[in-house]
# Entry
Amino acid sequence: MVPWSWSLTVLLLLPLVGAIGAALAPKKYTLEAAAFVSIIPVGWAVSTLIGFETFSGLQQYVDEIWIKELGIHYALGVDGLNVFLIALTTLAWAVAMFAVLNKPPTRPRMFVLLMGLAQTATLGAFLAQDLMLFVLFFDLLLIPFYFLIGMWGQGDRRAATTKFMIYTLAGSLLMFAAAIGLGIAAQHDTGTLSFAFVDLLQARIGDQTQIWIFGGFAIALLIKMPAVPLHGWMPDAYRAAPLPVLIVLSAVVAKLGAYGFLKVVLPLLPHAVTAHQTTYLVLALVSILYGSLMAFRQDDTRLVVGYSSVAQLGFVALGIWSLDAKGVEGAVMQMVNHGLVVIALFLIVGMLHERSGSDLLSRMGGLAQKAPVLATLFLITSLATLAMPGSPNFVGELYILFGAFESSFVFGVVATSGVALAAFYALRLFQRSMHNRATASADSREITGDELTLLLPVIAVLLALAVYPQLMAEKIEPATEPALVGVVTERETERKRGLELRERDRKSERESSRATRAASRAGATE
Amino acid sequence: MNFLVAATSAQAPTVEYGTLAPILVLGGGAVLVLMVALFSGRFVQRLLVPLLATAVLIVAGVLFAAGLGNPDPSVLTGALRFDDLAYTFDLIFVVSALATVVMAWRSQTAREVGSGEFFGLLLAAVTGMAMLASATNLVAFFVAFELFSIPLYVLCAADLRRTKSLESGLKYLIIGSLGSATMLYGLALIYGATGTTDFNGIGAVIGKGAVASDSLLLVGVGLVLAGLAFKASIAPFHQWTPDVYEGAPTPVTAFMAVATKAAAFAILLRFTGAALHDARDHWQPVLAALAVTTVFVGNFGALRQTSVKRIMAYSGVAQAGYLLVGVVAGTTLGAEAVVFYFLVYLLMNAGAFAVIAARERAGRDDSLASFSQLGAENPALAWSMTVFMIALAGLPITGGFVGKFYLVQASIDAHYAWLGVAIVLGSVVSLGYYLRIIATMWMDRTAGDHSPATELPVIAGASPEADASNHRELVVLAVLMAVLVVLAGFVPSPLFDLARDAGNAFAALL
# Structure
């Protein structure tokens, strides 16, 4: 067991250490070194995935007390909820680091360092089994992204990155306060201050306390996703961010919002969750519809993908808030699927930019003419985006819709219409860029070897998951139970309380009717 | 047994020289430095005097550190109380003064006003602060308060040729005197109402429920708190802060930003703990309201500033608001949080002002524009400044994060959760200006104005002999502080131990 206990720490630190190593290499080779180093975490994550056993508990769990005075533990672990997201993280970063090679940035050393720090922070947030550690990594990862967008971005990058930072940190800091509140509430119940999830799960938090703590978490996570109406930072940041950064931001970091709901909110705040379920289902539907319609209207390809992500994360949120095992399972699958699709889509957006000199659809058109391979790969990605049967996204959305129908028929019906909307924007993106009449600036060129090596692995993973979706499903399924167990018991107690109330009502009614009957009888005898 | 009675009966109080040694070293050192500086000559003025001041501070610091864990509750017949709360704050004053000595060593300021005067006054101020942190008697309280205030009025005006510095000194003198007078009235009223100058005696009278019935006492307490609020720059008594911070020589500003505030909070903790604890239902809501006001006034005020020193001034106001939350809590945890935050705050602020001073020596001024492209020009300084800004905003892997955690925890624990939320919301606003500094250093593509320094630098922290290539001590100071700030985020235990001992000392006061 000894080597295993180090395994996750190694995984966590690999990106940062690798980046430092790459930054120490001669400046000429920094980017190459960083790119090759970024493959190691992928291998590590895959080996973790292979060693992963299909049962509901945490695996490779490490728990050391870090800051005793504040009850913060250094606790890491993998389970069905995060194991695929971790693999996705490493893959996205590897693709991003290789994509950088095609377009070397200025100040490569700092770029590499910040990317490494960002990856470590993201992995940390996924791996954390301590609430404060989760919050810490969640906040930490904003710092590198702030610089990455602000220093290497395009257009109005300074304003965009400031907006991004303030939006997301406003949420994060509220979450910070809420997390401390949760810890103290648990301390009042159990007697010891500890933020480790295992300890927090033991505590019973008062219903009223849950509501305000929930508020802090919900705002932070919704901003991160981003969900309507808290998505204001998204368009500016997506327009300004350099493409490799955008890939990891959109594919992985945004998933942290949804993951937080599953990992923290559902198990720890079941009362607040059941109380707010309808509200958040409605929010999810609004995200789906608003995101889809906005994606359909955008001229900027980055924003088409950006708004489509809002819609897709709406689906994920729908799955989560269905509070149903199938829905949650679908949500986790969809997080991974969407992450993969977004990596591919942003790579393609970059290629379209190369060929037309612009991010705008109105400047593109006819790019498929001399590029059949590119067109094919793009089409596969588009079909996966719109959840064509046979794509992994189809499976994910199907599970989510099962869950949605389970919780409410109306929501299920509306959500199904959202699936159809995806076809509109995905096909429009493909058609307007690749087919339509060619504009003067558009220059149809076949996909190059460099581009292909980036895109192919991602599409290969997508296809593999399409052929064999059970690969994910069977590992995720057992993990949905601990996520939902709190909600289930909460419902059980609610139901019992309801029964008791009804019983009491009936009893008092019976008594009062008996009293009136007695009274009337008494009146009659008089 | 109290101080006044002892004095009037013409019987000299016993003097505990052992316990008082560090304070005597500081006071004696101030005189010594002043005397030595009477000798002219480059060696004495430029090297010996600063070295002597450093030595005095280090000796005093070692003595203070040795005192940790050996409290002496009654010194000078109960005028002073040396416990871990006092010793920890004493260490903060000493380290802050040491950083100031490093910043002032080759600065224009110390030359202009005279090396001996500058460092002598600095040591005198530290002496006053150390006494104030221990004061347990209204008379000692006021004497120590003035002892540290008056040298600072002079130090603020130490740049004799710069009108802004003179303005700063005058403004500080007038407003500071107003604050002192307010406080003195308050002290007199408290004495009138309770008949004792001893904190514990006052606490005993208040414990009998005198506050609710005695408006004299209530007004007295209010005036004392207002006087302290002036010194700690708590809104709405903060108006002097930006002007004075901007005008004062940068090393002095660095000292004021940390040590003055720490001194005011040290006595605030001791006074509220020992004397006012039983009346907390009366002052807690007032201070809570002040804390929220301070957090928002400070943070919104900083947003529109273009001078980094003014930004730091408003940021200091906001931080005073955060710290006040720990006092409002009135618990051991609250005191621990205040002490811990000050330990980190010391590192963050001393470092940030070192960077500002370095900028000024490079022939720039303290405007935001002069930080433009610092990242390309001097990465070490820019990285340090980035760490300080991130830490002041309370982001993770810095001591600032842990400090804010502690304060929020204390507020929630004391059933003031809404104050915790105010801290958090204030931090969000604060990002607006902290990030602006970071963005200016790293993300500006247009080069700033490279106008070289004029013949006689009129810039606050400038130095005649140290130019951009020759301010190594500032870079070393900044980098050292940055490393410590990050380290405090990873391994906060040593600071926790200090804070916990101080907290226990606070608990003993209640």
Q: What stands out?
A: Residues 163-194 of chain B form the longest helix (32 residues). The longest strand of chain B covers residues 72-75. Residues 448-457 of chain B have pLDDT under 50 and may be disordered. The interface with chain A takes residues 390, 394-397, 401-402, 404-406, 408-409, 412-413, 417, 420-421, 423-425, 427-428, 431-432, 435-436, 438-439, 442-443, 492-493, 496, 500 of chain B (CB under 8 Å).
